[in-house]
Amino acid sequence: MRSRARLVVEADERRSVVRELRSHAPLTLFPRRRREEPSGAVVVHLVGSATSPLGGDDLELDVHVGPGARLLLRGTAATLALPGHRPGGSRGSVRIEVADGGTVEYLPEPTVVTSRAEHEAELAVRMGEHARLCCREVLVLGRSGERPGRLRSRLELERAGTALLRNGFDTADSRLRDSHAYLGGARVLATEAVVWDRDPAECSGDGWALMPLAGGGALSTVLAGDVVTAGSALARAREAHPCGTELSPVAG
Amino acid sequence: MTERQHPPPSGPASSLAVLALADARLPGGGHAHSGGLEEAVHRGTVTGPHELREFLRGRLHGAGRQAAVFAAAAAHAAARKAPRRCWSELDTEYDARVPSPAQRAASRSQGRGTARAGRTAWPSPALRELMSVTDSPHHPLVVGVLVGASSLAGPKDAAAVVAYLSLSGPASAAVRLLGLDPFAANAAVAAFEADTERLARAAARTAGLPAAELPSTGAPALDLLAQAHRKHHEEEVRLFAS
Fold first, then answer.
1. Which of A32, A82, B36, B202 is deepest in the core (most CB within 10 A)?
2. Quick check: is B127 in a domain?
3. Is A51 part of any domain?
């Protein structure tokens, strides 16, 4: 299955509005209109409308956020990466462009890599000079008691044409996953990249670290045995970030 | 009597520069770094030769491979007399692939030491270009430049040197920290000969890519170890700087 979805958000006089929205199964976008966000952000939910990604699937979401606009893009349910009937892995790609003065928060639900899946996940964000970004990724390696398939993930952030972060990760084989110099046997790997108005000092605790990047912005990395523990470690990293309270809460 | 000049041999060559750069006795400051092993020992996750070998596996395929990719790219650029812009791109792109500030600092401090040794032993226009971007370049870039300037060695050799150092540093630290049998520690390194060869070949294959397209090979557990080490290093006495 090949899917191409697209979302364009622009700033109106006093709030952000959706200018273009193209869902393409299994990527379905739902703008939420129930109440106005205090931040003036437009809220869109990303819903997986079919069992996906399966081996052979190729899913792409393009997001554009205009100058001064603010988007909160949320997931609604965990994504299960599954093997397909045909050979070949699946690929999911999200590309986000944020113009100068725009803000994007991308908070999808966890991705679970099931046994024999072969999935490639890419998130590429290109930001203008004074754009702001928060994006989270939670990878769960196998359902409970299950050995995971293979997942390669890539997170790339560029601001004003300069790379801030290129963070690739390959689940590789079980011996490498168990190495304390690689993944330390963790079942859950969670990251949150925040590029906001101020950058934090480095801070770390049991199973997590908040790390300022060389070119600006920061990355929180968490290793945990389960999603709940990973979520509370990410919350502690947010508390240590000077802009942590300006970010939208994760459960919404 | 004058020494006769021989043409470079074909096939695998070992230039003196390659051997010296991989030698722990190079006065570049590498001995001060344990590559996360001291923190792992402190936590009790590495206690003997078996755990050391498994630690080295992650070191090599995560941080070691990342360094190898950039050492090969730097050797490729040095051999082609790349302009200054290319060195500043490699510097920024390596930074972007090392999210841990503690690991960036360790890489730059070893780079600065190795560059100092290199300026005296193997001066080259490429080294001057790299040093004009920053006086503390990343270690893999310095090794790549020094190897690339030699007519006897190339990107694969530069990759092999830093991949080897990503193993030998923690292994010798394990001898000091755990009183580990030095023969067992050495055998733990030697176990990765085939892996190191494959990884160096792969790094040589990507050496000519634009810096932005070079692979990124993250190792999140090592990032956490490096950050924890730096925090504890400030609070209590530690033997190694990283």
1. B36
2. yes
3. yes
Q: Does a structural domain hold residue A44?
A: yes
CB contact under 8 A, A168 and B230: no
pLDDT of residue B25: 87
Number of structural domains found in chain B: 1
Within-domain flag for A37: yes
In a domain, B15, yes or no: no
Whether residue B148 contacts residue B75, with contact meaning beta carbons closer than 8 Å, is answered with yes
Chain segment A82-130, per-residue pLDDT in tens: 887 767 789 999 999 999 999 999 999 999 999 989 999 999 999 999 9
Q: Considering only the beta carbons, identify the residue of B62, B99, B231 that sits closest to A181.
A: B62
Q: Which of residues 47-106 of B touch A (CB under 8 A)?
A: 51, 54-59, 61-63, 92-93, 95-102, 104
Structure tokens at A141: 């390696």
Provide ipTM, 2 decimals. 0.95
Residues B225 and B213: their CA atoms lie apart, in Å, by 27
The answer as to whether A243 is a domain residue is: no
Contact flag A179-B40 (C-beta cutoff 8 Å): no
Q: Does A225 touch chain B (CB under 8 A)?
A: no
CATH at B155? 1.10.4190.10
Instruction: Give every CB contact of residue A168 below 8 A, 6+ residues apart in sequence.
Output: A152, A153, A154, A155, B97, B215, B216, B217, B218
- How far does Cα A101 stand from its chain's mean position? 20
Helix (H, G, I), strand (E, B) or coil at B177: helix
Total count of domains within chain A: 1
- 156-175 in A: which are within 8 Å (CB) of B? 162-170, 172, 175
